[in-house]
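Case 433 in the screening queue. Each case pairs one protein sequence with one candidate compound; here the compound is DLL. For every case the pipeline is the same: read the inputs, emit a complex structure as tokens, and attach any notable structural observations.

Predict complex for case 433.
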Amino acid sequence: MIFNIEYETMPREALEAIQLRRLQATLERVYATVPFYQEKFEKAGITPSEIKTLKDLQKLPFTTKQDLRDNYPFGMFAVPMDNVVRIHASSGTTGQPTVVGYTARDIGTWSELMARSLAAGGAWRGDIIHNAYGYGLFTGGLGVHYGAEKLGASIIPVSGGNTKRQIVIMKDFGPTILTATPSYTLHLAEVAEEMGVSFKDLKFKFGIFGAEPWSENMRQEIENKLNITAVDIYGLSEVMGPGVAIECYQAKKGLHVFEDHFIAEIINPETGDVLPYGEVGELVFTSITKEAFPVIRYRTRDISALNPEPCICGRSHVRMKRVSGRTDDMLIIRGVNVFPSQIESVLMQVDGVAPHYQLVVDRKDNLDTLSVLVEVDEKLFSDEVRNLQNLEKKISKDIKELLGVSAAVKLVEPKTIARSEGKAVRVIDNRRL
Ligand code: DLL
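Case 433 output:
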């Protein structure tokens, strides 16, 4: 056996007993080794020994991104630097990057979880994985890489970029699994088409996509274009990297959280109250096996919900709903709350509209304005101007009706919106300048 699959199908009671034991050990350790946690727990008037049940976790304070920033770069590490064998960092697009560390055992745990993730997404020994997640400080590339090796699959470490060469490699090496961000995947499809290569002639069977929000419609588009089964993988550097949760290819309905290593909660982002299963709120994670960089009740800002129902694949872990956006992604346009993913789902329902779009927010005369730039296919773009204008009006109307916000829709020529090799930039908010 390559890894301990029995953890995935374990009855709830047995799983929770393991979780509690691991949680208690983690709390004792961070209390003894990380001054930040010791102070925080003391302020809240609690010691690790008072955590006697999983529910008691709710007595502990949250950890936020700001806390990580305040302890930049290594202040939250729970082991001496001699034991840290790897460092990663988040991109820091919204300020100072957050820095995370791993011991050799952490790398082993992550590799095992990524091996389990790849298996859940359809990969196995004998598969060739074309890994187009970026290698470097970003956790995507190396996370998949170590998982693939652990699984015993063959990994092609192409990383992001040099797209034409990637298509040649796909043709020549015959990879069966594609791992990349969904937006870069669409770009790969586009470049393949330009080069006269059809995905239908390639050997891909499964794609494992994540690192950014993508809609159900986008999944369909990718599955059709690439002739594969596409699953959603989730993770974040602060909690580990990719491999915190993944959909199984059998159901493709919610992402199984690896609960033997992470405890997930959903909270109301305003009050901090824990919400029951099924309710939508902010995801909070506690890592219960990490050594170098454990996090206790880390507020991810990602929006999701948890579903405890058993899955047809046999896994017993709770499933999280695909992340629709982040609490800090939400745009407030003249008082109306809008998530980019909601606009995406409106756009994706229109024939001839490509999944390449950008939202531009401005403030003119003290009023917020939202423009939606979206590409249309060649055929549509060469249509009469009047028809294009009518379509723009129709999409604006749909957005207004469904989301209650006025948006100026502009259909643009194919390939005018910048392509990204990693996470797509969907929003340009000029109000922040
Ligand atoms: O994006 C880790 C990762 C790599 C996940 C490859 C999946 C595949 P960070 O760069 O730290 O780590 O960014 C984490 O990206 O808090 C979410 O907001 C977003 N995110 C990650 N996966 C998904 C997903 C990696 N499947 C942040 N759906 C997270 C929606 C996602 N958003």
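Case 433 observations:
- The mean pLDDT is 95.
- The radius of gyration is 22 Å.
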